[in-house]
């Protein structure tokens, strides 16, 4: 695996992850709270009264005009707008908290947090709801149905909304071991959280008005503060209503707590703050009518979370960004009277549509819609929570040799692809328009008489010996005939039996025509009868599905299939990283083993050479150390014998 291949795979993973995050935030444009402060990275750039936001200045030279919450004490995202006098003023944006809950007490929470604290370092765990020890009132045996969300798990739930202000769980064996769960993403839209008060309320908040009500309800206090022109309504001790313009110190963090557990004096189903904590609400919650500017938001029935009043008529105007359409769906719907209804005025069709709960909701083919709620005087009920979101339309897909059945498509709609005469669909005939304004896995229109090779699967970042491919027969089929190619590894040629079916020449768009060859080392294709060089043309689109096989005397590398999806590429990229690590470890071990063997061989060689040198030295010493006197004595003895022999010879002659 080369550095370029690894870098490409890693870049692909980063691109896919970045693309996924972008899509998610473009669909659900909301803020979160991290370490006591607001975090918003969305695209809303309009204040809650419709004024365009002014651009922020940044040190790196980049500018934008999206709503943000740059200070630790900000309660909601905001931006600067230009007033009629020309001065810049601060204005909040219509951006809500990201949430999984649409009830005030979180009884609809179905998440997976299993600790009282949202801090990952916390070691305190919830026990399973199947535990019946200690006489616990809430368990799966006492509540066998799943309406309250209990089951064989230990996730935070609120099966007792009349007695607990938020999801909770048991942490031990006794009923007294129950604890509230601090879940950042479980707050009904309009509820900003429970804020602790280390100081008295007038020192913490810019208080406009304070009132005490013997029959205090959330709806009562929210309406009271809205009428007095404040953006926030605070609750304390179950009977105190505080109309707040904002925090005094916007640079001080406001951490959330879970002790807003005082029941409202006028409605025991809800909770109105604590002894030393303030439950904070947005005064737009439960408002009858108004303007809503944003990418994602919630509209509640009037007087929410209390029952809506009889004889009420409310109208809202919803405006989303340019080049977007609006999708509406109910998060909560409980209208008791059949004569009461919610309707939307669709500007694109110029007609009114009654809205009811549905899986996909209703999409208005415009970035502007009017919402209406009408209640008669006979009966009332809890009401509704309607979510609106701005999404993009899908343009007509551009399909070569084919077309779709409409010029544009709303999110959730399906486009049916029809091919021109002589072509057929390869891939899904129907594709859905996604929320980001695109189609996934579009099909292609290819010639009916085109023959495509059977796809050969090669993993990314792997080389394949072409000779391996040449030993396998590839079958190319059409509706009326079959053509098989058989390659011989030794000769490097490909033989294609000639068929009796005449193949029409497929059509292509534009002047360019392309031909695809199954090439061999001899760069020729021999038929079994005529042995003549043949070629079969393909349309431009068919090149995408045709594998070009080239066999050479030295095995070439085969490229991965370019038509594999992004998910396969991501999986292959992960496999590549794992394979790279394994290969690196194996190489290290092999290199270490080779070094060890080399050292051992070298040591043995040196030992042998030393041994040989020692043996030669000993032999040399044995030859050199022979006593010279031995040679002398033997020589003298021989000389004396010769002299004596000579004397005897002379005497004999005499």
UniProtKB/TrEMBL annotation:
Ranges annotated as biased composition (Polar residues): 110-125, 489-501, 561-571
Sequence segments annotated as region (Disordered): 110-144, 469-571, 613-654
Record flagged with keyword Glycoprotein: yes
CC per GO annotation: plasma membrane
Domain CUB residue range list: 288-391
Segments forming domain Kringle: 40-98, 100-186
Residue ranges of domain Sushi in the record: 392-447
Pfam families listed in its UniProt record: CUB, Kringle, Sushi, WSC
Record membrane topology: Single-pass membrane protein
Protein name: Kringle-containing protein marking the eye and the nose
Organism: Branchiostoma belcheri (Amphioxus)
Gene: LOC109485237
